[in-house]
């Protein structure tokens, strides 16, 4: 493993939340690629059952199994897993009670529906349980019934880091802070022990919750609220990931004039004429509107950046990628994260 200059040394579970549509899945995948740099092995976990990761890496739908989906340019592997609550429940029934076949019968009678739908706390702990199990897993001691619970502390971890593409900001604190609910369901016994072990990882300094946002009112407000909420339940707040950043296309002076509606129409028309436009005056009038909109958007974004600064967290800027998000785009975003100390 190479030494590196990251804001997240010691963090092994990276949880990525944010308002829907701000780029959680895209940035979780980019972060996984960034963390895999230098020959590391990273697991990217998805829990919303949308197969977003498979789409992103252009591979067939992920089975309930860890699959290699990409490599980092300087060595290192990204594996991915789509966790499904029902399959995770089967896992635990087998692990704790040796009852996989019974579990299958339970599905038929709808008991699994109970655990996965009626009791959301149980559902969440099954999902976070998969991610935290991957965080703890050590080489040479694959999880097996009858195997020692805590393999030699000296054995290296299977994954250097785990990145969780998590539920949106509105549900994240409840999703991660599932202990209280599970305590009500199971006060003692293996399920309770399991919940405790999950919470041990989530509450440790090994876990950081990152917030994806764009520079707009609602996502910024959700980010600030989320940062406060995650902090208040005692979990580690990670970075603010500002996504889809577009650099201004005008100099500062022209921008502030344009934001006030002050645009030099004659200069634009002159430029267009010189470039060989037929109806330069009309085109200039159209462009004027766009220039003013752009300048106003840049001004709003500056205000949003200022508000985000109040969160007082490491903040990374991720560029808007006009060609759309493909593997090359994920590498571009991963490089941006690494340059800014995000991995
Ligand atoms: N940096 C970016 N540049 C351009 N498009 C982006 C960027 N990040 C995300 N997108 C696009 O925005 C949409 C929402 O992103 P996604 O990662 O699915 O968000 P979420 O998981 O938060 O719902 C997708 O179409 C994605 O391709
Ligand atoms: Mg998503």
TrEMBL record:
<keyword id="KW-0067">ATP-binding</keyword>
<keyword id="KW-0547">Nucleotide-binding</keyword>
<dbReference type="InterPro" id="IPR016300">
    <property type="entry name" value="ATPase_ArsA/GET3"/>
</dbReference>
<dbReference type="InterPro" id="IPR025723">
    <property type="entry name" value="ArsA/GET3_ATPase-like"/>
</dbReference>
<protein>
    <submittedName>
        <fullName>Arsenite efflux ATP-binding protein ArsA</fullName>
    </submittedName>
</protein>
<dbReference type="InterPro" id="IPR027417">
    <property type="entry name" value="P-loop_NTPase"/>
</dbReference>
<dbReference type="Pfam" id="PF02374">
    <property type="entry name" value="ArsA_ATPase"/>
</dbReference>
<dbReference type="GO" id="GO:0005524">
    <property type="term" value="F:ATP binding"/>
</dbReference>
<dbReference type="GO" id="GO:0016887">
    <property type="term" value="F:ATP hydrolysis activity"/>
</dbReference>
<feature type="domain" description="ArsA/GET3 Anion-transporting ATPase-like">
    <location>
        <begin position="13"/>
        <end position="193"/>
    </location>
</feature>
